[in-house]
Amino acid sequence: MEANKSVTGPVLGFLTLIFSFIAIASWIFQARLVFWICLLLALISLGIFARLRFTDFMNFFISRQARYGANVALSIVGVIGIVVFVNAIIVQRFDKKADLTKLQLYTLSEQTRTVLKDVKKEIQIIAFFSDDTSQSAARAKDMLELYQRETEFLTISFKNPYIDLQLRDKYQLRYDGTIIFDSGDRHEKITTVEEQKFTSALLKLIRAETKKVYFLVGHKEHEITDFNNDGYSEVRTELENQNYAAFPLSLLTEPDIPTDCDLLVIAGPKNPLTRNEIDIVAKYLKRSGKLFLMLDPSITSAEDVNRRIVGLMRRWGIAIGNDLVIDETQFVPLFGPRAPVPGLELHEITRSMRDPVAFPVTRSVTPIADSASNLSVKSLAKTVGGINDSWGEKQRDTDGTFSGTFTYMPGADTPPPVSVAVAAEQKIDENSDGNATRNPTRIVVFGDSDFAVNAAFREANRDLFLFTVNWLTLEEDLIAIRPIDLQGQTLRQMRVHDIRLVQITSVFLIPSIVFIAGVIVWWQRRKGENA
To answer: Hey, what's the torsion of the CAs at 293, 299, 301, 304, to 10 degrees?
Structure first.
């Protein structure tokens, strides 16, 4: 009987340890049913072990080894307590972090810290991520925590746009991963996790300045006071949401463009501008003016009513064709190939665009190759079709209109790919210190104005219009911070079986090896004692 107890007791003790280990691992992996079963088995085996080896069990708690073990445990607890207490004091008084990453991923730029020192009002930052474990969400959380450490006026929260529907409707979210900076009276939307975007949004909210945008009237343009489908009232509303002030402007009654004009918009004039108006616009551009020009193609006449302003744009390195762009590869099915959906080119305006933009009807707008050396003229969008699939149609009927059938004529029509939007910037003069002496002149020309009417002003069309306005008014250059390139530093994403392998190795394999080694050592020592 004693021999059976001497064998059964250790076995039950080992079973208790094994079941306890499995229970702990099950709790970590949230396998609740396995946890409770193993916990129950561990308690049962421990109870039987205590019953069979009751005397040894009680002697263990009064033995010298137990007292030594208790003293060691108390010492460890005391040391841990002292470390925690000292660490709490250090964190409270000396809250510092050391960024040891090669790219300084957890260090804000000096420009950002300067802006954060000027934040004197409460700003709520709401990050909308449906998957808070994604790489973008993790990067946004790390970066926003850095911002919060620099000022007490920022409140940060993460929301799921598919659960918090009320907030999603309030901010009219269209993209997962949007981050809102809300100061109470206005807000900024950011869709890219970049320090420059975050800091620029904060700077817009704490500035008292409101930039003014003037829309030319008097030539049957789209007007910001028109609430019909072909009006621009939605444009005005969105500009006001972005802290701009929009006003109509008639150069037929005003002698000059106001000095507080940050941007002049000419949206699809159907009647020609007078020579005097062209001269006023030309003078405005020479004094670092900003122009957003949208000219629709001349459909009913071979004579271009906007030839004067077309001539003015040639001086700035922009050629506006008197044609109709056709793209049989990518177009709006409802309107056919004469409503192309061009591909976007790489530019500050288009870098954050996620979706393509459709142009109901458009003319070609192309950079002039031999433009002045101090001009930077780049295409923003081009047709995607190749030869015989996309071109700028110039062949008209005798009455000046375009025929119903379109065929590419080499040498006569505009060859593909056809550019339909161009951005031009005059290089800034610099003084001896290398600083700019004045702001640059910036011009953006689109071959279509209908993409921004009330009936179409949503999603990608709205983004393209607002990104253009921001670039023209220098809003994207508020803070010049070089973005961190993570492409070459990103580790391979762990697959499911990789994660399982790490979990099994760290939680089961390594502890099992240690446990088996302990059992072997115990057994060898037991054999030595019995010898």
So the answer is: 20
Residues contacting 5, CB < 8 A, separation 6+: 52, 53
Cα 502 to Cα 292, 496, 498, 499, 506: the distances in Å are 56, 10, 6, 5, 6
Establish whether the linkage from the previous residue to 417 is cis, with ω within 30° of 0: yes
Q: How far apart are CA 253 and CA 265, in angstroms?
A: 17
Tokens of 351: 């870098």
Beta-ladder partners of 157 = 126
Residue whose tokens read 């006003």:
247
DSSP-based three-state secondary structure for 528: helix
The rounded distance, in Å, linking the Cα atoms of 182 and 167 is 12
Q: Are 223 and 265 in contact (CB under 8 A)?
A: no
Neighbours of 341 (CB within 10 A): 18
Using CB atoms within 10 A of its CB, is residue 471 exposed (0-12), middle (13-18) or buried (19+)?
A: buried
Enter the tokens of residue 42: 């561990």
Residue with tokens 């001539």: 311
What is the pLDDT tens value at each position of the chain, 531 positions in all? 455 555 566 676 677 777 777 777 777 666 778 788 888 888 888 777 777 766 666 665 565 655 665 565 567 667 777 876 676 666 555 556 665 566 566 678 777 887 888 888 899 999 999 988 888 898 899 899 999 988 899 999 999 999 998 998 888 888 889 999 998 888 888 888 888 788 888 888 887 778 999 999 999 999 999 999 999 999 998 888 777 899 999 999 999 999 999 999 999 999 999 999 999 999 999 999 999 999 999 988 888 999 999 999 999 999 999 999 999 999 888 888 888 999 999 998 998 787 889 999 999 999 998 888 889 999 999 999 888 899 999 989 888 888 778 889 888 899 999 999 999 999 876 655 555 557 899 999 999 999 999 999 888 898 899 889 989 998 765 544 555 555 555 555 666 667 777 767 776 677 777 777 777 776 777 666 565
d(CA 167, CA 224): 28
pTM given for the model: 0.63
Work out the burial of residue 104: count CB atoms within 10 Å of its CB; fewer than 13 is exposed, 13-18 middle, 19 or more buried: exposed
> In 195-286, which residue ranges form alpha helices assigned H by DSSP?
195-206, 233-241, 275-286
Q: Can you give the three-state secondary structure of 98-149, one letter per residue?
A: CCCCCCCCCCCCHHHHHHHHCCCCCEEEEEECCCCCCHHHHHHHHHHHHHHH
Q: Which two tokens stand for residue 406?
A: 């379109």
Q: Which own/partner pairs from 132-137 qualify as long-range (CB within 8 Å, at least 24 positions apart)?
A: 132/158, 132/160, 135/490, 136/177, 136/193, 137/177
Tokens matching residue 402: 């375009």
Q: What is the CB neighbour count within 10 angstroms for residue 120? A: 8
Task: Compute CA 336 distance to the chain's CA centroid, rounded to the nearest angstrom.
Answer: 33
In whole angstroms, give the CA distance from residue 136 to residue 300: 50
